[in-house]
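FORM 12-B: Structure-to-Sequence Request
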């Protein structure tokens, strides 16, 4: 087994700031934008290779702004989108490549519950059919690209997708002697382990903090963070943001104390929905039929606005408007309203009739992680 090819580019950016890196990449620095591996980016993003994700637009923020950035051909010049379905994100692609589904390739599925459950299990997906049409597994696509770049052998090391699965599985066997051999795993398709002791967070550290330090600079739980104190002095933050080395109450943007509440009195949230994982497969009619996309509002707020269950309403703020069906229910507290996150944005005359909560969310990143900080959005709701 040779060493994997080392990427000569060390520069990286917070994922959420990819749109910034398209139009102002060369301005982005470590202290102002959380750039890593370099003090300042040398280039704007000109090419995007997006696979198995709907974050180009739908799961980003201020979708109208993202639409403007991605539609400008002078900025990002080429977008390749790889998926098994026609997401809103691949509307922006210059090339759409059809990925193989889990039924059309060999792969492992490690359910996230498997990591934390006291009854862990592993699933091996056997290939049921050959990929339909021109679909290919992403590994095959990468081999085709490597061929044309003259580095096929360095990339694949002569291994098929199944060869790599076997190699990775056998590496895992070295750590877990309970695993059956690879051939048996492929045949069975499912391995369950006997109940194991529930995972306790920081258990080793609690029992023996000297020999099991945490990954903090001091190895301990830090009430006062020297790391944050250093960032407080050196980082360049956006207006209204702060970094504090000890826990303090902070009045959040679009929170309960934001003066914007005068104009937009309702706190609006997007919650994870039983009907889909994030935005996956929301185009399937049977899923939509049994899991309607609703905007929940409390009877007190609904009565003040003349809204009844089944009415079409618009939720608006300065960043956008979404339109959808109201559900009046005491299950949501007065002063708040919600809709499930992950619905597919669909714009008609500047209004998102797909009811995607991200159409209303700010593209301003959080202070420390430079992430998507939108657990509350201030809005007003009106009947159409």
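FORM 12-B RESPONSE
SEQUENCE OUT:
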């Amino acid at each position: 087994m040779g060493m994997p090819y080392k990427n000569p580019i060390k520069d990286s950016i917070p994922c959420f700031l990819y749109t910034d890196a398209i139009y102002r990449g060369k301005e982005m620095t470590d202290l102002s934008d959380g750039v890593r591996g370099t003090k300042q980016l040398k280039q704007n993003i000109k090419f995007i290779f997006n696979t198995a994700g709907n974050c180009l637009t739908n799961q980003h923020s201020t979708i109208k702004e993202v639409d403007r950035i991605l539609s400008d051909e002078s900025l990002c010049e080429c977008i390749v989108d790889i998926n098994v379905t026609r997401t809103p994100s691949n509307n922006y692609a210059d090339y759409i490549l059809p990925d193989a589904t889990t039924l059309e390739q060999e792969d492992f599925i490690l359910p996230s519950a498997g990591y934390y459950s006291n009854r862990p299990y592993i699933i091996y997906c056997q290939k049921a059919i050959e990929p339909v049409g021109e679909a290919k597994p992403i590994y095959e696509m990468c081999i085709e690209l490597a061929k044309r770049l003259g580095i096929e052998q360095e990339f694949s090391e002569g291994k098929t997708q199944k060869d790599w699965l076997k190699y990775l599985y056998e590496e895992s066997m070295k750590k877990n002697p309970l695993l059956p051999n690879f051939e048996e795993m492929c045949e069975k398709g499912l391995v369950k382990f006997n109940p194991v002791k529930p995972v306790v967070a920081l258990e080793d550290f609690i029992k023996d903090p000297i020999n099991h330090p945490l990954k903090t600079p001091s190895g301990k739980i830090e009430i006062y963070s020297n790391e944050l104190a250093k960032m407080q002095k050196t980082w360049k933050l956006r207006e209204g943001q702060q970094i504090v080395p000890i826990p303090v109450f902070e009045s959040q943007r679009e929170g309960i104390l934001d003066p914007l509440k005068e104009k937009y009195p309702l706190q609006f949230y997007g919650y994870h929905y039983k009907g889909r994982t994030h935005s996956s497969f929301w185009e399937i009619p049977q899923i939509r039929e049994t899991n309607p996309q609703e905007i929940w509002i409390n009877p007190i707020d609904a009565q003040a606005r003349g809204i009844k269950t089944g009415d079409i309403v618009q939720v608006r703020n300065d960043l956008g408007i979404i339109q959808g069906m109201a559900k009046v229910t005491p299950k949501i507290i007065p002063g708040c309203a919600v809709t499930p996150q992950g619905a597919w944005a669909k714009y008609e005359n500047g209004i998102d009739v797909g009811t995607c909560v991200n159409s209303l969310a700010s593209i301003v990143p959080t202070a420390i992680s430079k992430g998507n900080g939108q657990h509350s959005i201030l809005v007003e709701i009106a009947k159409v």
